[in-house]
Design brief:
The protein is mostly helical and about 210 residues long. It contains 7 helices and no strands. It has helices at about 1-25, 35-60, 70-115, 125, 135-145, 150-170, 190-200. The longest helix is centred in the middle third of the chain and has 48 residues, at about 70-115.
């Protein structure tokens, strides 16, 4: 199970780093005129974000180490160790892989595009579109809402209501008063087990 979890975490880290590297191309060319500077910018921006998310995830997994169930405890310790290892692998291996991809694969794809269709792919900077649709939404809508005085109080109010509801429903959680039945007693399989238990179990007639 941890393999699939770590794959999701690694995919998220890769997306964060590559997105920062792509955004570096839209900065001032006098500052970001070389790949080394672009990579340094992306590294500084992405590494901190990945470190925060990876550390919180690892701590959440390590919390399972206090479980009295050995399977859950072992799973939590193993997952808590794997997540930081995944972080260091992404930080050390993915940046040079991005440079290699841009130099050896991306440029070739653009060359084939030019040959086949007679026109080259335009970058965001060339087309005048510095930000994507999702980025423009957060930059124009969300930032303006957060910066507005009424918007701040709306966010605080919604967060307070959500927190109060979470506390209320959490306080309603109680341990099971009876054993949970995962299969309907009227199911044919359960009827078979019940019949076998009555005929050949401890309560079977002599």
């Amino acid at each position: 199970m941890i393999i699939y979890i770590v794959l999701g975490i690694a995919a998220d880290d890769i997306f964060v780093f590559y997105d920062a590297y792509q955004q570096s191309s839209d900065l001032d060319t006098r500052i970001m005129d070389t790949k080394e500077k672009r990579l340094a910018y992306a590294f500084r921006r992405a590494v901190r974000a990945m470190a925060i998310t990876s550390s919180t995830t690892a701590v959440a997994f390590f919390a399972n180490a206090f479980s009295p169930l050995i399977n859950i405890s072992a799973f939590g310790i193993f997952a808590g160790v794997i997540v930081p290892i995944n972080y260091f692998l992404v930080v050390m291996i993915f940046p040079p892989a991005v440079v290699w991809y841009e130099e050896n694969i991306l440029l070739n794809e653009r060359f084939r595009w030019c040959i086949c269709w007679g026109r080259c792919m335009k970058s965001k900077k060339d087309s005048g579109e510095a930000l994507g649709r999702v980025e423009r939404f957060y930059d124009e809508k969300i930032n303006s809402l957060v910066g507005h005085k009424i918007g701040k109080w709306c966010i605080i109010g919604v967060s307070a209501v959500w927190f109060a509801l979470a506390i209320y429903f959490t306080s309603q959680i109680e341990p099971l008063s009876e054993q949970e039945e995962f299969i309907d007693p009227d199911n044919e399989l359960m009827e078979t087990f019940t019949l076998i238990g009555e005929q050949f179990g401890e309560n079977s007639p002599e």
